[in-house]
């Protein structure tokens, strides 16, 4: 087999009658979503036959500060390796275009899931929320804040496990060095952001997590308003309604996350200890077991079965290892990660079968959530 140049995407040629459009080793299947500066496509790797998502960015349409943001997003993704965070496989770049190849979340956005299925039972919400919390905790431990946590950026894989996506507003932080940029979408934004104050990144994410938990359990937003000033007023006052069906423990946890004063807001460590979170011992176990069994390979500790398969495909072993060690995110790394994914997929299917999908709540109804 011949491996093409390491980083170039090769042709993004127009299909000659019925042949799929191609980028590097990937065949484009269809559009998954559109962002402000990017289009996200579903594609298939020609060698491993695995499906991936490719975020395609036309650099000529971006000003320098937006381009910087995109490069920061890539830089952050390179550092993240967690079962509940979308995995980066490859980065391809030409003079005008940037292609970010990542893991594909087959069941799409949590936003769409809630829109068609209605709010979740608290049991189901707890399982999802543990996974979300593990992902955000992992980011914070790596000094990364997400700053755009919302149901549109929480994707679901083939096993309905959470995959945190879109680090477009992500940033690095050090405690005691506050950030100041306005970030995220208004209904999920914390009071300190509305007030234009400097803020500690992790506390901002915790507020958004409070909004996320409310949305999972209620199927509607806690803070809404006919206009931005009206929304701002509700958020800065921390005023929201608790529906009759919410349990007292759940209300207690949400109220601790949606505390207006960021210094008094609950921490991730405290959330993990909260009664509502611990009501079902299988929920943290499921989130934790995936975190422990996957993705913890250290530098120089690569999967022998995957390297052997690659060798039989005629792909140079040494170059693969070098690509992984150097964080090259080229074709060699991509094939390695995609084959590794197969192994993990098999394992997580076994785990989901053991833990079960979790029941849908009674009285669940289709919801209307305004897309932000
Ligand atoms: P926005 O500015 O609207 O937040 P964006 O340019 O940052 O968008 P993303 O949020 O990364 O782009 O992707 C846009 C949409 O494409 C997502 O909300 C989701 O619907 C879809 N999408 C992105 N990545 C994936 C993926 N890995 N698997 C499945 N769908 C995806
Ligand atoms: Mg997004």
Automatic annotation (TrEMBL):
Domain UBA: 301-341
Cofactor: Mg(2+)
Compartment(s) of residence: Cytoplasm
Name of one Pfam family that matches: Pkinase
Protein name: non-specific serine/threonine protein kinase
UniProt-annotated binding residues for ATP: 55
Any one GO biological process: intracellular signal transduction
Enzyme Commission number(s) of this protein: 2.7.11.1
The Protein kinase domain, residue ranges: 26-277
């Amino acid at each position: 087999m011949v491996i093409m140049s390491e980083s170039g995407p090769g042709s993004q040629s127009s299909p000659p009658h019925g042949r799929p459009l191609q980028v590097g080793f990937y065949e484009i299947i269809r559009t998954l979503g559109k962002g402000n500066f990017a289009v996200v496509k579903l594609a298939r790797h020609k060698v491993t036959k695995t499906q991936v998502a490719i975020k395609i960015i036309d650099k000529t349409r971006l000003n320098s500060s937006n381009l910087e943001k995109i490069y920061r997003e890539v830089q952050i993704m390179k550092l993240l390796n967690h079962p509940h965070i979308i995995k980066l496989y490859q980065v391809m770049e030409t003079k005008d275009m940037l292609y970010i190849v990542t893991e594909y979340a087959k069941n799409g956005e949590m936003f769409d899931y809630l829109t068609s299925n209605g709010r979740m039972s608290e049991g189901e919400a707890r399982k999802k929320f543990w996974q979300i919390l593990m992902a955000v905790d992992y980011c914070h431990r790596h000094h990364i804040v997400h700053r755009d946590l919302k149901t549109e950026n929480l994707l679901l894989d083939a096993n309905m496990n959470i995959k945190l996506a879109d680090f477009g507003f992500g940033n690095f932080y050090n405690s005691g060095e506050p950030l100041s940029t306005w970030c995220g979408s208004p209904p999920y934004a914390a009071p300190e952001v509305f007030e234009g104050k400097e803020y500690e990144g992790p506390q901002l994410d915790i507020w958004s997590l409070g909004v996320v938990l409310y949305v999972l359990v209620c199927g509607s937003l806690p803070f809404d308003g006919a206009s931005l000033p009206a929304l701002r007023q509700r958020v800065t006052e921390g005023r929201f309604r608790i529906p009759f069906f919410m349990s007292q423990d759940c209300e207690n946890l949400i109220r601790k996350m949606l505390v207006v004063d960021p210094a008094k807001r609950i921490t991730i460590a405290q959330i993990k200890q909260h009664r509502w979170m611990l009501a079902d011992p299988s929920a943290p176990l499921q989130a934790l077991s995936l975190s422990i069994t996957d993705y913890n390979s250290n530098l120089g500790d690569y999967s022998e079965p995957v390297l052997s398969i690659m060798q039989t495909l005629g792909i140079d072993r040494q170059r693969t290892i070098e690509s992984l060690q150097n964080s090259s995110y080229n074709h060699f790394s991509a094939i390695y990660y995609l084959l590794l994914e197969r192994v993990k997929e098999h394992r997580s299917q076994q785990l989901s079968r053991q833990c079960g999908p979790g029941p849908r709540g009674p009285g669940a109804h289709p919801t209307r959530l305004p897309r932000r």
